[in-house]
Amino acid sequence: MPAPSSGPAVAVVLVVLVVLVAVVLTRSLLRQRVALRAVRAELARAQRRERESRAPRTDPVTGLLSGAGFSAVVQDACRGPERAAAPVAVLHLDLDGFRALNRAHGRAAGDAVLVEVARRLRTAVRGADEPARLGGDEFAVLLADPDAAVDVAVRLLAVLSEPYEVGATRVRVGVAVGVAHSRVAGAGLLRAAEAAVGAAKAAGGGCVRVWDEAADRRHDRRVRTVERLRAAVHAPTGDNRLEVHHQPTVDVDAAVVTGTECLVRWVRDGVVVPPDEFVPLAEEHGLVADLGLVVLERAVAEAPVLHEAAGRALVVAVNVSASQLHDPRFLPAVERAVRALGEDRLVLEMTESVLVAEDEATTAALDAVVAAGAHLTVDDFGTGCATLAYLRRRPFSAFKVDRSYVRDLETDPRTRALVEGLVLLAATMGMGLVVEGVETPGQAHLLRRMGAPTHQGFRYARPAPVGEAARVVADLRDRLGAAARGGAADR
Fold first, then answer.
1. How far is 299 from 466, CA to CA, in rounded Å?
2. Which residues, in sequence order, are bridge partners of residue 435?
3. How many CA atoms does the CB half-sphere of 141 hold within 13 Å?
4. Dihedral (CA of 414, 420, 426, 428) sign
């Protein structure tokens, strides 16, 4: 009888051996991957430690601790062995008006002010305290005695608000101070102090705020608001976008619509946010230059619709901040806008703060935009600190009388005399004049009698998106024409 075949048994054994080898190899590979991940993690930690060790612990301008050095000192203080027995506090200081000072007087003057701020900090705090410059116009102090934090903050508020010598000029820089205690904020001490100074700035600056949970929530809301505004500027969506609203100007003598002022609005979740609520945020967080470019581009794109509605060439007026003048993208954008507008005229409206800026960069920027074909108007004239000498030296071709002068025009003889003086000033200097804030027939009649026929205000139209604004302009054109034919332009 033949012996049974051993082939199947051998095959089973081979399969088992193959499976065992595969299991062993798989486990080995898994161990190698785990080990590789651990090596990579350790390498990343080593690289991070190396970067941190290379980060300068001293600010090169002021000689104080740098932001990185201060963070390390605070972390050490919060993790120290006597943490429970010896709590600490952090003061976060934010200078107010420093950026404007830097623009007006130049970086060297700004650095000199920073050095003086550092000197005053060292003088005002005690030996155990650690002052630092976090960066830009932000400073901080680590206090060894948290119970004295508010007293120290108030003292610093007074010391840092004293005038600074900038060349032959004395300037003031405001300050806001946020206070946070480690016994309340714990490991989030630095963030808590930042939230507290945010609350102090929101209160108008020049004050001290101590961190609490409510302040933290307000700070978080402010951060979220800034991020949504940033998205509206750079990546708009249907429920989070910027719009340009147009408010016409009229010449009641010629009975025509002469132009429109292009005003930015933020539409957030179906609600129009007024500019006085978000433009300061844009200024504070470095968004105003980008926002200005968006508005300029949109104003130019929408101008043909309003031109057609008015039946004539228009002035397209766009508000510009001082910081935009120093943005390298601004002049090319102005040149493109002038070319695109054709027979419509681009007017850049700026407040008196630009007039009083004496640095060469501002002068060169103003001359360049005029050479590019834009016209310059002083906005809200009479509310700032400009003098006639500044007006004479700058290449502005017109100014706008602020609405605050118009409000009391019918009831206050002194206001009427001031406005008459401004009308005479414009005529004498050969400058254009626009009166804003005109709301009543009486105001319009008085201004026309004074020789100021170019008006802007709710009497004629409110700011509106381009579609609605075009309908308003067409209607205003018809009404002005009918009134002129009837000899009653102001009735």
1. 9
2. 401, 455
3. 30
4. negative
- Distance, in Å, from the CA atom of 442 to the CA atom of 29, rounded to the nearest integer, reads 89
Sequence-ordered list of residues with C-beta below 8 angstroms from that of 414, at least 6 positions apart, any chain: none
Three-state secondary structure call for residue 154: helix
| d(C-alpha 31, C-alpha 37), whole Å | 10
CA–CA separation, 231 and 212 (whole Å)? 29
Give the residue ranges of DSSP H helices in 125-247. Answer: 149-160, 182-185, 189-202, 213-234
Q: How far apart are the first and last CA of the chain?
A: 131
**CA angle, residues 438, 444, 447, in degrees to nearest 5:** 105
**pLDDT digits (tens), the chain, 491 positions:** 455 556 667 666 666 676 676 666 667 666 766 666 665 666 666 555 545 444 568 899 999 999 999 998 988 887 754 444 478 999 999 998 888 888 788 888 889 999 999 999 999 998 889 999 999 899 999 998 888 999 999 999 999 999 998 888 888 888 999 999 887 766 688 988 998 998 888 888 899 999 887 767 777 788 889 999 999 999 999 999 999 999 999 999 999 999 999 999 999 999 999 888 899 889 888 899 999 999 999 999 999 999 999 999 999 999 998 888 889 999 999 999 999 999 999 999 988 777 666 667 888 899 999 999 999 998 888 776 555 666 777 788 998 998 989 999 999 999 999 999 999 999 988 999 999 999 999 999 999 999 999 999 999 999 999 999 999 999 999 998 887 777 654 44
Strands 315-319 and 256-268: parallel
Judge whether 325 and 290 are in contact, CB under 8 Å.
no
Query: Helix, strand, or coil here: 57?
Result: coil
CB atoms within 10 A of CB 86: 13
For residue 377, give the amino acid letter.
T
Of 313, 320, 301, the residue nearest 263 (C-alpha): 320
The C-alpha atoms of residue 280 and residue 288 are separated, in whole angstroms, by 9
Judge whether 182 and 87 are in contact, CB under 8 Å. Answer: yes
Record the pTM: 0.65
Q: Phi first, then psi: what are they for 254, rounded to 5°?
A: -80, -10
Query: For residue 451, what are the contacts with CB-CB under 8 A and spacing of at least 6?
Result: 423, 427
Single-letter amino acid, residue 423: V
Q: How far apart are CA 277 and CA 479, in angstroms?
A: 34
From the number of C-beta atoms within 10 Å of its C-beta (0-12, 13-18, 19+), residue 423 rates as middle
Q: Which secondary structure element, helix H or strand E, spans residue 267, and what is its range?
A: strand 256-268
Provide φ and ψ at 454, rounded to 5°: -95, 115
Q: How many CA atoms lie within 13 A of 79 on its CB side?
A: 6
With contact defined as beta carbons under 8 Å apart, do 409 and 443 qualify? yes
